[in-house]
# Entry
Amino acid sequence: MTSVPQRFLDTLLSDTFDHAHDPEHGGLRLSALLATVLSYLEDAGVLSDPRPAYFRDEGSNFAAECHGYACDTEDDVLAIFYCIDATESTPLGDSAEVPTVGKDTVDRGFRRLESVVKRALDGKLDAVEPSQAASELITLIKECEEARRSIEFHVIATGIVSERAAFSEGTGGYRREVWDVLRLARICGPGTGESISINFLEEYGQSLPCLLTEKGTDGIQVLLTCIPAAVLASIYNIHRGRLLERNVRSFLQFTGKVNKGIRTTLLNEPERFLAYNNGLSATAARVDLKDGRDDLARISAVHEFQIVNGGQTTASIASCVRKGESDLSRVFVPMKLSIVPADRVAELVPRISQFANTQNRIQEADFHANHPWHVELERLSRGTWLPPTAESPRGTRWFYERSRGQYADELAATGTAAGRRKFRAENPSKQKITKTDLAKFVLSWDQEPAVVSRGAQKCFVEFMGKLSREARPLPDPVEFKRIVSLGILFRTSEALYGELDFKGYRAQVVTYAVALLSHRLQRRLPWSDIWELQGLPTDMLPPLKTLLVAAREAITNPPANRNITEWCKRPECWSQMVNLDVQLTLPEGLEPAPRSGAVVHESLSSTDRVLVDSVAAVPSDVWFAVAKWAKDTDTLLGWQRGLAYSLGTLPGRNRKPSIKQATQGRKLLLEARRLGFGHEQLVSELLEKLARQDSGDGEK
# Structure
């Protein structure tokens, strides 16, 4: 029977084979391999928006070298990656035995990463061209001390590392992490997660007092305890996102969301934290107890520990510790710990997580693996064939991968070399669409490039939110072909970017260029032509190239010399981009959208028109601030926060709100004002005008 590491390595090499055809990697195996692993770790919630960035600088003693990075501005961590391809002699797509990687090889990777940081801080890498992806990394390294951001070194190896020392510190206090095939399979494999065990006695010199309840008939037992805040912060700073139950981590993005109210209490009234805070809900497969008597005991260790509610509390405490802002010696956090039988962890922990988070409005749809919309899209992808061609006499399909590894699993299930050739011929890897690809394609065309620029997982979270808010019906064959056409548009844009010989920022430029095209075409696209051609009409290529050039010029020259990657994540970036003066010659029948003015509401009454104009007069910054304030304070409803954000994007798209949007927008803004929201651009005259609309006595 094939081992778990072996199956994982086979999937990894198969997916790397698919990535290797991407022009971004220039045919470089190492770049494609790292991109694949980083996408795995991002999908598992371990990393936030990782980026491949190959860099090597020779030195007198040894080289400084790195292959990628991820800057988590919420957790205040800069992770830098070095990749060891221990299977480089095996052709991509083939099966390889899992090799052993020596400790010396891993240590060499860490030394090269440390050298990158040292040379960057010493100013020896200042001459790196801004067009290189590593240029932004060097800037981030220099900013770390001022931003109080820690640096971590991650070595990734396509083998099993002997004498691995993960979570250790090297010279300079930089934390080290090793990701070999065994560990990657545990945390990134389907239906898996890295087991976290905490020995409070050995690691922190103390146990936790707890109140025991009777074990239920289903085997679940609940313990009530308090955990010292300093201990909780230490656990989180070691394990971070891996500590949070996977579904909640993926959909609520709890990691690092520092709550201002929690921080204020920690800084000003730490002794009252226990009284003010609701605490944590956590699960474990097993606990070690000592000094038990009656219904009291002390917890000495927990195994397969996961936090299912309280991510904001945990991350906020950890942030205060990292920044040295608060003395936590008097702070204790209440915790409800549910002990779930080991054989039922996969079944019950996600359900406990779901119900523990009802105040955050996690819907059943949030647990997306079996969401009906995705299941139906998968069914359509398996049953929709393209006509046979000389290259593909049997015809081909676009393969929608609803969950990670489906493509590799179905490929492996063919059993023979001939079967694998047939599968690849009918399902070319270039015609595979993952669920994060899907979100990227759709949201780019929906003119939300700032969301797409925040990374694959956050982009997918927003896509699922739109799916829920809009109550989108199940996809039909027409919708499936439309999604494939968007994929063809997006991937053609990526290929054109490579043809233009640009380096760096491809992900950001492409999503903004596609969004600009959508804006200019008023979201019209020759779907049927693209589907029939399985490519873009030739007369669409010149305007797309023009938009790629314009988008790159704007993105790489941000206001006030801001960090380019972070600027692209801001709604203001799109607001500026949409007003670019770019002359396009579009195909006949796809004339440009008007450069000024708004959609005319010819059917509106005079009263409705006044309401629409009043809501349209509210500045974008106010709407964005309302959305953020409502999320930080957990006020307003989820759909209202989404509406506030949407209203903020309308001016940048030269649009006015619909009467329905205006009616609900007025209500939510007045309600926010009543609950304490304020903004310097929200002047009293505008508020009074909006309030008058309530009784229909607005200006006639």
Remarks:
- DSSP finds 29 helices and 18 strands in the chain.
- The longest helix spans residues 477-499.
